[in-house]
Hints:
The chain is an alpha+beta fold. Helix content is 31%, strand content 27%.
Amino acid sequence: MTPMIEIQNIARYDGQEVTLRGWLYDRTDKGKLQFLKVRDGTGIVQCVVFQKDVPEDVFADAAALTQESSLIVTGTVRADTRAPGVPGGYEIGVNTIRTIQIAEPYPITPKEHGVEFLMDNRHLWLRSSKQWAVLRVRATVIKAIRNYLDDHGYINLDTPIITPTAGENTTSLFELDYFEEPGYLAQTGQLYNEANIMAFGKVYCFGPTFRAEKSKTRRHLTEFWMVEPEMAFFSLEDLMSMEEEFISYIVQTVLKEREEELKLLERDITMLEKVMPPFPRISYDDAVERLSKIREEVTDSEQKELLQIDWGNDFGSPHETELTKQFDRPVFVYHYPTAVKAFYMQPVDGRPEVCRSVDLLAPEGYGEITGGSERIADHDLMMQRVKDFGINPDAYQWYLDLRRFGSVPHAGFGLGVERTVSWLCGIDHLREAIPFPRMLKRMYP
Length: 445
Ligand code: 4AD
Ligand code: MG
């Protein structure tokens, strides 16, 4: 009996006869030779059908296979450094082929397709090698996130998806009818994390997050995945130290475990290899100053316009891109203006116009990948902020309670999975970093 193998393990079977199951990804015919690229979900391997090595009907069956036909192949594994595939370096000399289904003419062909067409066919596009590679990186990012936190004493506690109030802001809430009462899809699990840390110390939630963002940018999804660690007795400085360790671990794990995928994506990994602690830390004030200097040197008037910034404004992506160019690794920007951040952030002592917040900006123009802060621990100040925010404090009674029964300084942040995956894979739009993206104008498939 020949072993049934997965392509990802092919190196273990050099010289042996094996069987694998999958789909025909691509083919080239060279008269007496047919090169079939077969994928099985774990990898892609070139299967060579040589007319003189196989019975006539096997050669004919191979020739009849259309793109994406499903099949079972038996053949001998041969090491060949030139062999394309993932992992490369091996090919299969075919002995027999069993066709499972001949695919109908496949809509996604090797020719160029528009992105809207590909998005309409997302259920099929997932099979394309680039999409496949990105989503394998995504799975590793998620695994690394969990491993790091689980191994460093963080307790994973799920927070609700259906919530009675806003968690982040009131402008991007998805409202739903909760048995005749208004409910909202969670914008963050943070507020519940803050309850959880008072019971567990260090916690994280990790789940889908919803923002009814009306803005149509390449960095915004309406449904995305966010991991949110929250820690009791953490200062902003503790937070930055934890984040740089955590993010470096994620990046280095991906470089180690997804080398083949990054190669397939033609990702230049020089900048990723440098992602190690410490990360530079600059204040918002400093960032604004740097930006005005950068702007002075810009000659292009359009770019000059884009880089315009007054103290108090939030950064847009041109600002973030220019700022990160000054550093060789991700950069922390801390102490943002209170007015552009969420209501729960601790004001800076003696300077309440700025708050104890920190965003982490990824290099190479990939923008903000984490946002976090020290939280207000004082009951009365939090009560004031909730009121200023324009919502009924009754709905936040439980959250205010946390400030009444053993309140402690604490901090936390959220990391967007799709932003991280886009950065690591070098793709310029978040829609490719999640299997089935949800965006302003897209809910299908
Ligand atoms: O900066 P944000 O909005 O922070 C929070 O929600 C905090 N409550 C987190 C916390 O302190 N526990 O979001 C955090 C991260 C961003 O840095 C970004 O990576 C990602 O979540 N993110 C989005 N990703 C995709 N689409 C969107 N619309 C996103 N909004 C935020
Ligand atoms: Mg943010």
